[in-house]
Specification:
There is one protein chain. By secondary structure, the protein is of the alpha/beta class. It is 37% helix and 24% strand. The chain contains 13 helices and 16 strands. Strand 1 (2-6), helix 1 and strand 2 (32-36) form a beta-alpha-beta unit. The longest helix has 22 residues, at 58-79. The protein is globular and about 75 Å long. The model has no long low-confidence stretch (mean pLDDT 96). The structure holds aspartic acid and magnesium ion. Aspartic acid is lined by residues 7-8, 37-38, 43, 121, 187-188, 202-205.
């Protein structure tokens, strides 16, 4: 059995859904577990719906629900010419129930309410895609991830109960392949032991593909994307990107850790644990090779990879009393940092300075000053870039630092990281 994952972009309109069908035609007769995300930007819309519910803004709430309904119905009208097709009633019921939530009691747990609503994006998209594929003659079964993937109660960032989830897939999912070649389920969502819906974190559908593959001992996973595979840099920032034909699980984790956004970082571990290869392929050119991610590190070093993070702030903290930075005040610095919600991309210290680089959009400078200024002098530089180069050499460093001033750099055997600003 193979696992396929189709993300939001691959089901964002009727054309895209038809393309999913054409890909499935290429694999007729094979056993496929298919994981699908919410259509296009639906998850963002669902987030706005929860916020409107939470703020008790009835009109905004209803407006966004109806806008999302219209978006889905427009796609459906292209896919299902028969106006009496059952899928219309099914999807309208989902939206009617969503609309009715405004008048239902709400708990005091925002994250809980978020998961009950935001998960509907995946429920709706899988229902539509499944109905379409079935209409076009491929027998399949729609499977509810809320009965398969068991998690804890950490709403919005639920942790998987692997034992229980594996048992569910073995007992409820795999036997369905006796009747149907294709089983379709939702990315991103799971359930607690009480049966409440949970979500696995934004962009979590890739991770779901990893979970399904792990629990079913799949032969391979394919993530179908709008890019030809994993590239050695984001084409947004870099000309002349090249595709990585083959990399190791380890390399894939490193790249996603440093910020390459092609696959969700959590996806790799379950696959590595069972040595299940992961293919990243283009849904536009499904016959092309793509990238294969697997155990061997033999080809990792062939191509240097570049990861850019823009809009960074470098903070430096110096104890006002001129004390050395030793373990004791380092732990004080970390305690304070945890109060600022700063996400540290790089850190470095000298005798008297401790420096961290953080994403500007995730931290408030004001808050950092408040938390630190009683005991530390705080300096900061805004508008910086962080460049990470895997498998670097001097030429690659020179290439990314043309017209740039280097404020800080760190090198290990495989990785160079440079904090730079425009000269
Ligand atoms: N639909 C979810 C999101 O947009 C999960 C995913 O697409 O991977 O975050
Ligand atoms: Mg997505």
């Amino acid at each position: 059995m193979n696992v396929f994952k189709f993300g939001g972009a691959s089901v964002k309109d009727a054309e895209a859904v038809k393309n999913v069908l054409s890909i499935l035609h290429l694999f007729r007769g094979q056993k496929l577990g298919i994981v699908i995300s919410a259509m296009g930007k639906t998850t963002n819309a669902m987030e706005l719906i929860v916020e409107a519910l939470w703020a008790r803004e009835k009109e905004v709430f209803a407006e966004i629900v109806e806008e999302s309904r219209r978006y889905h119905l427009a796609i459906m009208s292209d896919l299902f010419p028969d106006a009496n097709a059952g899928i219309y009633a099914d999807i309208n019921t989902e939206f009617d129930q969503l609309l009715a939530k405004f008048n239902e009691p709400v708990t005091d747990n925002f994250d809980f309410e978020y998961d009950q609503i935001v998960s509907l994006g995946e429920v709706i998209s899988t229902k539509i895609v499944a109905a379409y594929i079935q209409q076009e003659g491929i027998p399949l079964k729609w499977m509810d991830a809320r009965k398969l993937i068991r998690t804890d109660r950490k709403y919005r960032e639920a942790e998987v109960n692997w034992e229980r989830t594996t048992r569910n897939f073995q007992e409820r999912f795999l036997p369905e392949f006796e009747q149907s070649d294709v089983l379709v389920t939702q990315g991103f969502i799971g359930h607690t032991s009480e049966g409440f819906t949970t979500t696995l974190g934004r962009e979590g559908s890739d991770f779901t593909a990893g979970i399904v593959a792990y629990c079913c001992n799949a032969e391979a996973v394919t993530i179908w994307k709008d890019v030809p595979g994993m590239l050695n840099a984001d084409p947004k920032w870099f000309d002349n990107t090249v595709k990585l034909d083959q990399i190791s699980f380890k390399e894939a984790i490193e790249l996603s850790y440093y910020g390459a956004s092609v696959i969700h970082p959590k996806t790799i571990k379950p696959l590595q644990n069972k040595k299940i290869p992961l293919y990243v392929k283009s849904f536009i050119h499904p016959e092309a090779e793509g990238t294969i991610i697997q155990e061997s590190t033999a080809t990792d070093h062939l191509v240097p990879s570049f990861i850019f993070k823009m809009n960074q702030i470098l903070f430096s903290f110096t104890p006002k009393d001129f004390s050395f930075l030793v373990e004791k005040n380092l732990s004080d610095i970390f305690d304070r940092l945890s109060k600022t919600k700063a996400k540290i991309n790089i850190m470095q210290n000298s005798a008297l300075d401790f420096s961290i680089l953080v994403d500007a959009d995730k931290v408030s400078i004001q808050r950092v000053l408040e938390v630190f200024s009683d005991t530390y002098h705080v300096k900061f530089n805004e508008g910086l870039e962080l460049v990470t180069i895997r498998h670097y050499d001097q030429a690659t460093i020179d290439r990314v630092t043309v017209d740039k001033q280097i404020l800080l750099q760190q090198k290990t055997r495989e990785t160079a990281r440079l904090v730079v600003r425009q000269k």
